[in-house]
Automatic annotation (TrEMBL):
GO terms for biological process: oligopeptide export from mitochondrion. It comes from the Eukaryota. GO terms for molecular function: ABC-type oligopeptide transporter activity; ATP binding. This is ABC transporter family protein. It comes from Coptotermes formosanus.
């Protein structure tokens, strides 16, 4: 197995076999991982309350709009009498948001370690059922390390990132519905910006992922070369070739930096759009 390159800020986290062309993505990986998860109740509670947390902030915008209408419009009754019901509604929304976020974060806090424990126990139990020939051909230390890293990545993707995406999508959907209800003309004017932004993010992530394969290959070669230089028994002839090896290693590092610069530019253009 090649050495695992360090994760860089310009690239998203990848699994240990993402650079292996023989690994096929079937599309039902989420279902398979959830089937191994034994405490789905915490996940369901966190999912529902995450959607509530994404929708409730727009209620504050509605109440703020009513508040501004009272301040700028004609007063049919006293100011205090007009704004008091709105203030109580705002207090109720704030309390509801606080409770939903607290319970949702608590459910996610319980779901995270249970998810990792269930996946690790199932994966390690399946390893015990393999034939002894498998362990003769596979370094067990590297295998356990890769499994632990991949399970951590699955947890970050299917719990943290997925619930954050659910909250953001819910917030976007509720915002669009409210915009169409309260001011549909302006909403229709800005509606084309949604597919434009989505296309920019999808295209940008695709380009960055394409660059990652080049980055991963160069980083792996550099790491292997550095390990060879540090661990190999050196002879006089080998010492004579150290300058050539140093130049080759420096060119490899320069290639890594060029890929990082290109990926950073793609991120800047994507976020700018």
């Amino acid at each position: 197995m090649p050495m695992r390159p360090l994760n860089q800020g310009v690239f998203k986290k990848h699994g240990s076999q993402d650079d292996d062309d023989s690994v096929e993505i079937k599309g039902d990986e989420f279902r398979q991982c959830m089937a191994l998860y034994g405490n789905k109740g915490f996940y369901a509670v966190g999912f529902i309350l995450t959607m509530c947390a994404g929708a409730t902030p727009f209620l504050m915008n509605v109440f703020m709009g009513d508040f501004m209408s009272i301040m700028t419009g004609p007063q049919r009754q006293g100011f205090i009498a007009a704004v008091t019901p709105i203030l109580w509604k705002m207090v109720g929304v704030i309390v509801g948001m606080t409770v939903a976020l607290s319970i949702g974060i608590g459910a996610r806090t319980q779901a995270n370690p249970m998810f990792m424990a269930d996946l690790r126990s199932r994966c390690f139990a399946s390893l015990l059922e393999l034939d002894i020939q498998f362990y003769d051909d596979t370094p067990t230390g590297v295998l356990i390390s890769r499994l632990s890293e991949d399970i951590t990545l699955i947890r970050e993707t299917y719990i943290d990132a997925f619930l954050q995406a659910v909250q953001s999508l819910t917030q976007a959907a509720v915002g669009m519905v409210l915009a169409l209800v309260y001011c549909w003309r302006i909403a229709l004017m800005v509606l084309p910006a949604i597919p434009l932004s989505a296309g920019a993010f999808v295209l940008g992530d695709y380009m960055v992922d394409t660059m990652w394969y080049s980055f991963n290959e160069t980083q792996t070669e550099n790491a292997a070369q550095a390990e060879e230089v540090l661990t190999q028994f050196r002879t006089v002839k080998a010492f004579d070739g150290e300058l050539v090896e140093a130049e080759r290693y420096e060119r490899g590092l320069e290639g890594v930096r060029r890929v990082e610069y290109r990926a950073a530019w793609v991120h800047a253009m994507k976020d700018g759009i």
